């Protein structure tokens, strides 16, 4: 059921909730994208009440800033307060994994469980990024000329969508189904907010360099599950520093899956999440 969450500064956020049980709030990646985690909700909504939302300026939410990490943490808190209740589990994917982690660090008393899916860790040197660039180009090889031509041309909505589909196809392990999965992510096409992407990514880089997130993670006293796909083009070693800093953390790698492990390993993804929440309830 779609609803509107209004933040304290008056921004209207699209949200959706389904299922019954303890609340689980999902945080999509990007930044600058919309919620694409409907398949995750459908995997879990017989066990938990799943709450999804489009982040500020993205998808069906109001297109307005400011685009800062603290502002997104506050928006997530508004979603939690208005739809989830006093304490929720939070699952974040990619950039959304960092957002979920920051929320748990800022408001640990409001989080029962943290599920960190395909994030990129807290290494201030971002040592994973050069490997990601090489892996992206390698996996895009069959479509690389077209992808580069689209990047160099005018960015109309149709061009932006085609380029995104090609790039997102690299996030899947199986080349035979990668384009189809990427098309599913891009349907419906709600447009990318590049201003949001640039601003938040730049701030995250600064935060990793200047804030001692490892020390804050060592003090975090709540259960954390890290889920990885070993075929992710972002090397999973980037998450090692986060895993080592957390005192109450499990880590699961789902064979045969890339950056979106629930797509390519749905049964194992569901089992990992539900077992974790049930065991630490």
From TrEMBL:
Q: Tell whether Hydrolase is among the UniProt keywords.
A: yes
- Enumerate the spans annotated as AB hydrolase-1 domain: 22-260
Question: What domain of life?
Answer: Bacteria
Q: Which UniProt keywords apply?
A: Hydrolase
One family name in Pfam for this protein: Abhydrolase_1
SUPFAM superfamilies on file = alpha/beta-Hydrolases
Cellular component terms per the entry's GO annotation: membrane
Task: Name the Gene Ontology molecular function terms of this record.
Answer: aminopeptidase activity
User: Which GO BP annotation is one of this protein's?
Assistant: proteolysis
Protein family: Belongs to the peptidase S33 family.
Q: Which protein are we looking at?
A: Alpha/beta hydrolase
**Biological source species:** Micromonospora robiginosa
